[in-house]
Structure formats: structure tokens, C-alpha cells
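Notes from the 1:1 (GR / supervisor)

We went over the backlog. Supervisor wanted to see one worked example end to end before approving the batch request, so GR pasted a single chain during the call. The sequence is below; no edits were made to it. Supervisor asked that the structure be written out right there so they could see what the output format looks like.
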Amino acid sequence: MKVFDLSLAAVALCFSVASVSAQQQALSAATAPGPIESVSVTARRFHMEPRDFEAFEYEYVLNNGDIVRFSRRVGRFYVGLRGKPTVEIFPTTADQFVTKGGARLIFTEGGDALNIDHYETLQASFGIPVATAPAAPK
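Structure output shown during the call:
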């Protein structure tokens, strides 16, 4: 009887070693460097109370002469260029917002200064054609 138990334990040990080896091979195959097809990142949502947005509800003159205005309606936040319809913005932190198009609006100095990353996508969301650089001569 003890011989049977010993051989059964040896068989079980053999299966567990083979199983660990197969798991290690699968893990190394999954983490092996290779081409990445795509990476999807979504903006993290941040809950902001409408009263907290009051610090940003002003017009800002950009260094290119455009004027953007921030507003809110029914608990939603918006940015607009003068003479264009507004676009909804979504808070990601207490002083940063993002549009659906991917433009990031970052307030600094307690809301007195504004930086806009990917301004061309913000312009496109307002329906403004984005100027493209002229092609280099051949």
C-alpha cells in the first residue's frame, strides 16, 4: 500500500512540474516582445461639483488671439470659442478637463492661466478647419 501511495505521489509531482513548466512557457510567450496592434486609454472621470467649477467660468484670451469661454448648464461643463457653439468638457482632475476629441485644458495659477494641449482638435470640434502646413518643395 505504501508503494502505491509513493508512486501516486510521484505521478502527482510529475504532473505539477509539467503544469508549472507549461504555465511558465505560456507566460513567457504572452510577455515576449512583439508588435503592439493598438493601445486604448480612456480618460479617468473626476466628479466635480458645479460650485467648484465657478473658479473657471470666465473668458480667457489665448496667445493666438482666440477667446474661449467656460460655462456650465445643468451640471455639465462647456467651453466655447466666441461665435461658435459650445463643446462639452469632462473633468479629469480638480483643474484639468478633456474634450471628446482629445483636447486637454489645464488650468494653472488657481484658474488664472490656461494651457490647451492638442488645440487643433479643439478647433476641429468647433468646426474650424485646421490649417495644415504646406508641403515641402521636392
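Supervisor's comment: Residues 1-20, 133-138 have pLDDT under 50 and may be disordered.
Batch request approved.
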